[in-house]
Amino acid sequence: MFTVSDTPVAPSPYFGQEEEDDNPTRRIRLIMKLRSSGVRDTTVLSAIEGVPREKFVTEAFTTHAYDDTALPIACGQTISQPTVVAWMTAALDVQQRHTVLEIGTGSGYQSAVLAKLARRVYTIERHRELLREAEGRFAELGIPNIVTRLGDGSRGWKEAAPFDRIMVTAAAPVVPMELLSQLREGGVMVVPVGEENNAQMLLRVVKDEQGAILTEEILPVRFVPLVSGS
Ligand code: SAH
Q: Which pTM does this prediction carry?
Protein backbone atom coordinates (compact mmCIF):
# COMPACT_ATOMS: atom_id res chain seq x y z
CA MET A 1 0.00 0.00 0.00
CA PHE A 2 1.24 3.53 -0.81
CA THR A 3 0.98 6.39 1.65
CA VAL A 4 1.61 10.04 1.04
CA SER A 5 4.43 11.29 3.22
CA ASP A 6 6.50 14.43 3.65
CA THR A 7 9.50 12.36 4.47
CA PRO A 8 11.83 12.36 1.50
CA VAL A 9 12.33 8.94 0.07
CA ALA A 10 15.91 7.85 0.57
CA PRO A 11 17.59 7.92 -2.83
CA SER A 12 18.74 4.64 -4.21
CA PRO A 13 22.52 4.32 -3.85
CA TYR A 14 22.73 4.32 -7.64
CA PHE A 15 20.70 7.46 -8.13
CA GLY A 16 22.94 10.34 -9.09
CA GLN A 17 25.92 8.08 -9.40
CA GLU A 18 24.37 6.69 -12.54
CA GLU A 19 24.06 10.23 -13.90
CA GLU A 20 27.68 11.06 -13.14
CA ASP A 21 28.95 7.78 -14.45
CA ASP A 22 27.23 8.36 -17.77
CA ASN A 23 29.56 11.18 -18.68
CA PRO A 24 32.82 9.19 -18.96
CA THR A 25 30.97 6.64 -21.11
CA ARG A 26 29.52 9.36 -23.32
CA ARG A 27 32.95 10.98 -23.53
CA ILE A 28 34.57 7.73 -24.72
CA ARG A 29 31.78 7.30 -27.28
CA LEU A 30 32.43 10.82 -28.54
CA ILE A 31 36.16 10.08 -28.85
CA MET A 32 35.33 7.01 -30.93
CA LYS A 33 33.13 9.16 -33.14
CA LEU A 34 35.87 11.78 -33.56
CA ARG A 35 38.33 9.05 -34.51
CA SER A 36 35.97 7.56 -37.07
CA SER A 37 35.36 11.02 -38.53
CA GLY A 38 39.05 11.12 -39.42
CA VAL A 39 40.81 12.69 -36.43
CA ARG A 40 43.67 10.24 -35.84
CA ASP A 41 45.99 12.33 -33.68
CA THR A 42 45.99 10.34 -30.43
CA THR A 43 47.51 13.21 -28.45
CA VAL A 44 44.60 15.44 -29.47
CA LEU A 45 42.04 12.70 -28.78
CA SER A 46 43.52 12.09 -25.30
CA ALA A 47 43.44 15.82 -24.56
CA ILE A 48 39.76 15.94 -25.48
CA GLU A 49 39.12 12.81 -23.44
CA GLY A 50 40.72 14.56 -20.47
CA VAL A 51 38.34 17.54 -20.45
CA PRO A 52 34.84 17.13 -18.95
CA ARG A 53 32.73 19.02 -21.52
CA GLU A 54 29.69 18.81 -19.23
CA LYS A 55 31.38 21.39 -16.98
CA PHE A 56 31.56 23.90 -19.85
CA VAL A 57 27.97 23.84 -21.08
CA THR A 58 25.05 25.68 -19.48
CA GLU A 59 23.05 23.58 -17.04
CA ALA A 60 20.06 23.18 -19.36
CA PHE A 61 22.31 21.37 -21.86
CA THR A 62 24.37 19.09 -19.63
CA THR A 63 22.62 15.98 -20.95
CA HIS A 64 23.71 17.05 -24.44
CA ALA A 65 27.31 17.78 -23.44
CA TYR A 66 28.62 14.82 -25.45
CA ASP A 67 26.46 15.28 -28.51
CA ASP A 68 28.60 16.28 -31.45
CA THR A 69 26.99 19.71 -31.77
CA ALA A 70 27.70 23.32 -30.92
CA LEU A 71 25.57 24.48 -27.96
CA PRO A 72 24.43 27.93 -26.87
CA ILE A 73 26.27 29.60 -23.99
CA ALA A 74 25.68 33.04 -22.41
CA CYS A 75 25.87 36.33 -24.35
CA GLY A 76 24.45 34.75 -27.52
CA GLN A 77 27.67 32.79 -28.16
CA THR A 78 28.34 29.08 -28.64
CA ILE A 79 30.62 26.33 -27.42
CA SER A 80 32.06 24.79 -30.59
CA GLN A 81 31.09 21.40 -31.95
CA PRO A 82 33.49 18.70 -30.67
CA THR A 83 34.41 17.63 -34.23
CA VAL A 84 35.43 21.20 -34.99
CA VAL A 85 37.43 21.43 -31.75
CA ALA A 86 39.20 18.20 -32.71
CA TRP A 87 40.00 19.30 -36.27
CA MET A 88 41.17 22.73 -35.18
CA THR A 89 43.33 21.34 -32.40
CA ALA A 90 44.86 18.73 -34.70
CA ALA A 91 45.53 21.37 -37.38
CA LEU A 92 47.33 23.54 -34.83
CA ASP A 93 49.90 20.80 -34.13
CA VAL A 94 50.64 21.91 -30.55
CA GLN A 95 53.84 20.73 -28.85
CA GLN A 96 54.47 20.64 -25.09
CA ARG A 97 56.91 23.57 -25.14
CA HIS A 98 54.54 25.87 -27.00
CA THR A 99 52.80 29.03 -25.90
CA VAL A 100 49.42 29.35 -27.55
CA LEU A 101 47.19 32.37 -28.02
CA GLU A 102 43.47 31.72 -28.31
CA ILE A 103 41.01 34.40 -29.37
CA GLY A 104 37.44 33.86 -28.11
CA THR A 105 37.54 32.07 -24.74
CA GLY A 106 33.76 31.54 -24.76
CA SER A 107 33.02 28.67 -22.38
CA GLY A 108 36.74 27.96 -21.95
CA TYR A 109 36.41 24.43 -23.35
CA GLN A 110 38.84 24.86 -26.23
CA SER A 111 41.29 26.64 -23.89
CA ALA A 112 41.14 23.65 -21.51
CA VAL A 113 41.87 21.23 -24.37
CA LEU A 114 44.82 23.38 -25.52
CA ALA A 115 46.10 23.61 -21.93
CA LYS A 116 46.51 19.81 -21.90
CA LEU A 117 48.87 20.07 -24.87
CA ALA A 118 50.81 23.31 -24.45
CA ARG A 119 53.09 24.92 -21.87
CA ARG A 120 50.84 27.93 -21.54
CA VAL A 121 47.62 29.18 -23.09
CA TYR A 122 46.79 32.88 -23.33
CA THR A 123 43.12 33.40 -24.05
CA ILE A 124 41.15 36.59 -24.75
CA GLU A 125 37.39 37.12 -24.53
CA ARG A 126 35.38 40.31 -25.08
CA HIS A 127 32.41 39.36 -22.85
CA ARG A 128 33.16 39.83 -19.17
CA GLU A 129 30.43 37.37 -18.10
CA LEU A 130 31.79 34.57 -20.27
CA LEU A 131 35.34 35.19 -19.14
CA ARG A 132 34.37 35.11 -15.44
CA GLU A 133 32.53 31.82 -15.92
CA ALA A 134 35.43 30.31 -17.85
CA GLU A 135 37.90 31.42 -15.17
CA GLY A 136 35.70 29.75 -12.55
CA ARG A 137 35.85 26.49 -14.51
CA PHE A 138 39.64 26.63 -14.88
CA ALA A 139 39.93 27.16 -11.12
CA GLU A 140 37.46 24.37 -10.31
CA LEU A 141 39.28 21.94 -12.56
CA GLY A 142 42.68 23.05 -11.25
CA ILE A 143 44.05 24.02 -14.65
CA PRO A 144 47.21 26.00 -13.87
CA ASN A 145 48.48 27.10 -17.28
CA ILE A 146 45.75 29.33 -18.73
CA VAL A 147 46.13 33.10 -18.58
CA THR A 148 43.06 35.19 -19.42
CA ARG A 149 42.38 38.70 -20.64
CA LEU A 150 39.21 40.70 -21.20
CA GLY A 151 39.25 42.68 -24.42
CA ASP A 152 39.45 42.72 -28.18
CA GLY A 153 41.45 39.68 -29.18
CA SER A 154 41.98 40.89 -32.73
CA ARG A 155 44.69 43.13 -31.24
CA GLY A 156 46.44 40.06 -29.86
CA TRP A 157 48.55 40.11 -26.70
CA LYS A 158 51.69 42.07 -27.57
CA GLU A 159 53.47 41.71 -24.21
CA ALA A 160 53.35 37.91 -24.44
CA ALA A 161 54.15 37.65 -28.18
CA PRO A 162 55.51 36.01 -30.22
CA PHE A 163 53.34 32.90 -29.96
CA ASP A 164 54.18 29.45 -31.31
CA ARG A 165 50.53 28.85 -32.12
CA ILE A 166 47.43 31.03 -32.48
CA MET A 167 43.86 29.76 -32.63
CA VAL A 168 40.97 32.07 -33.47
CA THR A 169 37.60 30.60 -32.48
CA ALA A 170 35.42 33.29 -34.08
CA ALA A 171 35.11 34.04 -37.80
CA ALA A 172 37.26 36.89 -39.12
CA PRO A 173 36.48 38.60 -42.45
CA VAL A 174 40.13 38.13 -43.47
CA VAL A 175 43.22 36.67 -41.77
CA PRO A 176 43.89 39.20 -38.95
CA MET A 177 47.24 40.84 -39.77
CA GLU A 178 47.94 41.97 -36.21
CA LEU A 179 47.70 38.37 -35.03
CA LEU A 180 49.90 37.18 -37.86
CA SER A 181 52.54 39.71 -36.76
CA GLN A 182 52.45 38.13 -33.26
CA LEU A 183 53.06 34.63 -34.62
CA ARG A 184 56.62 33.31 -34.31
CA GLU A 185 58.56 32.25 -37.41
CA GLY A 186 57.80 28.55 -37.84
CA GLY A 187 54.44 29.15 -36.15
CA VAL A 188 50.92 28.08 -37.10
CA MET A 189 47.62 29.94 -36.87
CA VAL A 190 44.21 28.34 -37.32
CA VAL A 191 41.41 30.76 -38.14
CA PRO A 192 37.91 30.57 -39.65
CA VAL A 193 37.58 33.20 -42.36
CA GLY A 194 34.33 34.46 -43.92
CA GLU A 195 31.19 36.48 -43.25
CA GLU A 196 28.72 35.65 -40.47
CA ASN A 197 25.96 33.96 -42.44
CA ASN A 198 28.00 32.93 -45.44
CA ALA A 199 30.36 30.11 -46.10
CA GLN A 200 33.37 30.28 -43.83
CA MET A 201 36.54 28.32 -44.37
CA LEU A 202 38.84 27.11 -41.63
CA LEU A 203 42.35 28.15 -42.65
CA ARG A 204 45.70 26.88 -41.46
CA VAL A 205 48.21 29.66 -41.87
CA VAL A 206 51.90 28.80 -41.53
CA LYS A 207 54.64 31.39 -41.10
CA ASP A 208 57.83 29.69 -42.24
CA GLU A 209 61.30 30.26 -40.80
CA GLN A 210 61.90 33.07 -43.32
CA GLY A 211 58.61 34.75 -42.43
CA ALA A 212 56.81 33.72 -45.65
CA ILE A 213 53.10 32.95 -45.25
CA LEU A 214 51.51 29.75 -46.57
CA THR A 215 47.76 29.21 -46.34
CA GLU A 216 45.87 25.94 -46.54
CA GLU A 217 42.09 25.32 -46.42
CA ILE A 218 41.02 22.75 -43.84
CA LEU A 219 37.22 22.51 -43.87
CA PRO A 220 34.05 24.61 -44.21
CA VAL A 221 32.82 25.79 -40.81
CA ARG A 222 30.28 28.08 -39.18
CA PHE A 223 31.39 30.35 -36.34
CA VAL A 224 30.05 33.41 -34.56
CA PRO A 225 31.80 36.54 -35.84
CA LEU A 226 35.02 38.01 -34.50
CA VAL A 227 33.83 41.41 -33.28
CA SER A 228 36.61 43.96 -33.49
CA GLY A 229 36.95 47.43 -32.09
CA SER A 230 35.39 46.63 -28.69
N1 SAH B 1 36.44 28.71 -27.91
C2 SAH B 1 35.08 28.82 -27.44
C3 SAH B 1 34.11 29.11 -28.57
C4 SAH B 1 33.68 30.47 -28.39
S5 SAH B 1 32.60 31.19 -29.59
C6 SAH B 1 34.67 27.61 -26.64
O7 SAH B 1 35.38 26.60 -26.62
O8 SAH B 1 33.62 27.67 -25.99
C9 SAH B 1 33.56 32.63 -29.98
C10 SAH B 1 33.88 33.57 -28.84
O11 SAH B 1 34.64 34.63 -29.40
C12 SAH B 1 32.66 34.22 -28.21
O13 SAH B 1 32.68 33.99 -26.83
C14 SAH B 1 32.83 35.71 -28.52
O15 SAH B 1 32.36 36.56 -27.50
C16 SAH B 1 34.33 35.81 -28.70
N17 SAH B 1 34.79 36.95 -29.49
C18 SAH B 1 34.27 37.46 -30.64
N19 SAH B 1 35.02 38.49 -31.07
C20 SAH B 1 36.02 38.64 -30.17
C21 SAH B 1 37.12 39.55 -30.07
N22 SAH B 1 37.34 40.49 -30.96
N23 SAH B 1 37.94 39.42 -29.01
C24 SAH B 1 37.74 38.46 -28.07
N25 SAH B 1 36.74 37.58 -28.11
C26 SAH B 1 35.88 37.67 -29.16
A: 0.91
